[in-house]
Structure formats: structure tokens, C-alpha cells
Amino acid sequence: MLDRLVGLETEYAVRFRPREPGCARPANTLLFERLMGRVCGWVPPTDPFAAMPHGTLANGGGLKLERLPFYAEPNSGFVEESTPPCRGPRQLLRYQRAQDVLLSEGLAAGVHPSGQATLLKNSHDGRGHYFGCHENYEAVVASSSRMALWRLSLVVALPVLFGLLLAADMTAICFFVLWRPFLTVLRLLPGREASERSWSAVMSWVVTLSRTPVQIFGSNFTHLTAFRDVRRPLLAFLVSRSVIVGAGMVHADGRFSLSPRALGLRSLCGVTAAAWRSVFYFCHIMKAAASAGIDPGANRSVFRQRVRLQISIADSNMAQWAEYLKVGTTLLVLDAIEAGELQDAPLLRRPLTALRAICADPELQVAVPLQNGERQTALQLQRYYLEACQRYVEHCGEAGEEAREILKRWEETLDALETNPSRLVGKVDWVTKKYLLDGLGPDAPIEARRKLDLRYHELAPDGYYLRLEAAGVAPTLVEPEDVRKSIRVPPEATPAALGAY
Amino acid sequence: MNMATPVTSAPVLECSSVAEAAPQEATVLAPLPEAAAAIQADCLVDAEAFLDQVRVTIGGE
Prior knowledge:
The structure holds 2 protein chains of 2 kinds.
Chain A: E1 5-18, H1 28-42, E2 54-56, E3 62-66, E4 78-82, E5 86-87, H2 89-108, E6 115-120, E7 133-140, H3 145-188, H4 192-210, H5 212-225, H6 228-240, H7 242-245, E8 249-250, E9 256-257, H8 260-264, E10 267-270, E11 278-281, H9 283-292, E12 306-311, H10 320-338, H11 351-359, E13 367-369, E14 375-377, H12 378-395, H13 401-419, H14 429-440, H15 446-455, H16 464-470, H17 480-486
Parallel strand pairs in A: 10-11
Antiparallel strand pairs in A: 1-4, 1-5, 1-6, 1-7, 2-3, 3-4, 7-12, 8-9, 13-14
Chain B: H1 23-26, H2 32-43, H3 47-53, E1 54-55
């Protein structure tokens, strides 16, 4: 129980505070290169000759700047870190926080003379762009006859995906080459930044449109063949889990939602990002397809029975309590599903609509329709999964202390959400953020509310959540000295510790 | 639900079982109103400039 490999990928926005008003902002690419330089000076990468901007660190974690190809705006991209694969939610929490500490200290040491850069561990920026957090769980992709079907369909699908991807990128390259001279002229005119932003928007749509066939084929292929026995009973759990793991968000019109990430999701299964962010994201299939034309042997791992199930429905969490429960409860539900429990799990009629409805209702009263005609609130759905996991842990002889700890915290959280959510200030991000926003009062300017929304996530001593933690009002579940040790040492009993990195 | 109301009675972050909780959790209590007030005061300063300093733009995933 809780023994499968698990990892988190966290995306960070970059804030740059100029020393002098009017100073030009350095490009995110430059800031990232210098951050990598700092970090690699402290923690040697496993492959010092690896091409920037990617790096795998000594603890097995990864670091990169994520951006679309051909993207013209120099400030574009966000920093993405991945933990090494871990075992259990507490070990994972320790390694995720180790990455936070490493990155924030790297920037605090100074990466540019004209100002100070910091990271925001959130899910949207000041301009309304969405990103977030990816959870990776080792899980059974299919069993018995479905496994044979999965492998057979992969043999057919990978070359098709490779061909579609090649055609998409060739289209984008042609567009880029043809229109690039116009951008050069535009850059000579006044309003350079606006021109570059327009160019970026155009290129973003070109890439999105050219990859539409890839998404349509990949989405249908994975929906029909991958993790069918897992996804079906898991979905209502993931959708309703937002009441525990949502980071909270202030809209431009002042409305409050539980989760910004929920607003950016457009499909249940997907193989490519940009305009089609999906709940289940099969980027490893896409990478296998991309490598198929270069090194056919490199994609052998996708044919295994236990592979990575990537879930992209959640926000990044500042609260350790919420992050611990995000991973811990999901691990328990996956264990129960693979053990044959949860055969009668609730099935949502329209999962994405239900997700948006739940996230739009901080009162937690909305009831979403199920396929059997009933309606249930997110808390009722969570209660179903909690009770099913309690029964599963009770009957399973090998349940350890950590499984019981997860169940206890899960129940405590649901009890508080039902009766007195303010008990969860410091433990659940959206509750904490709403508490702070309500204290601002109804007449506070929208800019102040949006600043609170974003600065809550800043990884700096004056970031709002970290101030609460320093004041002792937000519980920590991992010891700071263990976090610091995890910066350099890979997690025990994992591929990283065995030298796979 | 308006969660500003409980400020006067300071929401208490408590553990249902102190004996089973991690050591740091058991000691977590109350200076929330002061910390919250400092944060709320900071929100009102240069909010627009702050928002402009946070930029990601779509970068893929």
C-alpha cells in the first residue's frame, strides 16, 4: 500500500522587481540560465554536459524552462521543476519542498544586476495565463486482454502520431520563416513590446492549430485504450478533490473560484498542451512518438504494464497539509481501485462541467449530476471515497501508519469543510486565501485582491503564505533539516537512489 | 461563507490528537490576526506594479 512511485511537476511564474523604475525586464530565458548556473554550482547536475535549458540534479529531480517552440516574446516561459520519483506522500512532500528551497535560494542569491527575481508557485499569472501542477503515479495501464490490445494499438499509433507531429511542426516552421521578417521590421517601430506580444499570440495559435490533428488522434486513442479501468472510478474523486487541494483564485471581475487550474482544462485525455489542457495528460506517449522516428528503441518503456499516469487537474499547493493530502488520498484511491474495490464508484455525467461548477462555489453547496440520475455535492463524493478507503485499509492487513495518517487528516479536513472551514486556515490554500481576502473588505480595489491572490504564492520571505508559516499559523509536516538534506540526496528505495539518474 | 468573521475569535489551528500529531503541529496557535493584518496592508501598496511584474505567458507544458 502507498508503495507505487509518485512524482510532482511544479510550474512557477517569474516575478522581476526592477531596482530602478523603468528598467527593462530581462528575458525569462536569461534569468533561467543564470538560475541554472547558481543551482548547478551548489548541486552538481548528473550530466554536466547536458544541453541547457534542461538539467537533472543530484537528487534525481529535474529543472527546465518550459515554452512553446518558435515563441517570440523574450519574457515568455515558466520555470518547471520535477521531483525525483518518490515512495509515499511524506517523502514526496519533502522532495518537492527541497526543490522550492533550492530554486528560491538560487534566485535570492541574485541573477541579474538590474533587479530581483522571485518565483510564484501558483497556477496563473498577472495576464490571465494558466499553468499548474502535474502529478505522476505509477499505475497499471491495462490488464489481461486489454493489455494486449494496448500494446498492439501502440505499435500502430506511435508512427501515426510521429507523422502528424512532424507535419504540424513543419507547418509552424514554414509560417515562422515566412513571417519572421515582418517581426524584425515591427521591432524597429515604437511599441516593440506590444508587437512582440501580438507576434507571440499569432505563433501560439499557429502551433495550436497545426497540432490539432495530433490532439484529436491522440486524445481519442488514449481515451479508448489507456488506463480505462483506473480513470473511470478515479474521475469523480479527482473532480471533487478540488475542495481540498484548490489554490483559490480571484477573477478580474472579483469573483472567487476554488481552483484556477480547473478553468484551463478543455478535455479529459490529451497528448499535447497549449489550448487543450486535459485532466489525464499522456505526454510520455507523445515523447515516445517523437522519438520513434529517431530511435525506435527509446520508446520501449511505454509498452510496460506499469507506466506513468499523469494527472493535470490540480493547482500547486503552498500549504503542506493540502499537498500531502493531494498525493496521499490519490495514492489510497489508486490502491483501492487496483485491488478491485470501488466497483460502484460514482460516475459524473459531465466531468468538466461538474469541475467548473464545484470550483465556482466556495459555499460547497452545488450538487453535480451523476450518470445514475442522482446529484451529489463535492463533499458527498469525497465522503464516498473516504469511507471506501477506510474499509479498504481496514480489510487490508498490510496497511501502515502512513495510510492511517492520511485517512485521519482526510476525515478531519472534510469534517471542517462541512462545519467550520476557518479551522483549515493555513492547511487548505483556497480557505486561507479566502480568509485573507474577506479580511480586506468588500471595498478593497480589485488590484489589491489580485495582488493578494498572486503574492500568496511567492517563494520569498515576504510571500504571504510563507509569512503565515513563519508566524506559526500554517502547519509544516516535514522537518526543515530533512528538506535541506533532500536537496542533495536521492530518495531511498527509488530509481534515483539506485543510480538510474 | 465569509471567513473574515472569525478573526475576532482567532481561528485556532488545532490537532484532534496532539499525541499523534507531528511536534510542530501541536504548537500551532493563534497569531493569525496580526499576520493577516500585515498581509492585507501590504496588498494595498503598489498592487498594479506588482501584477505587471508577474509574467509567464503561455509556455506550453
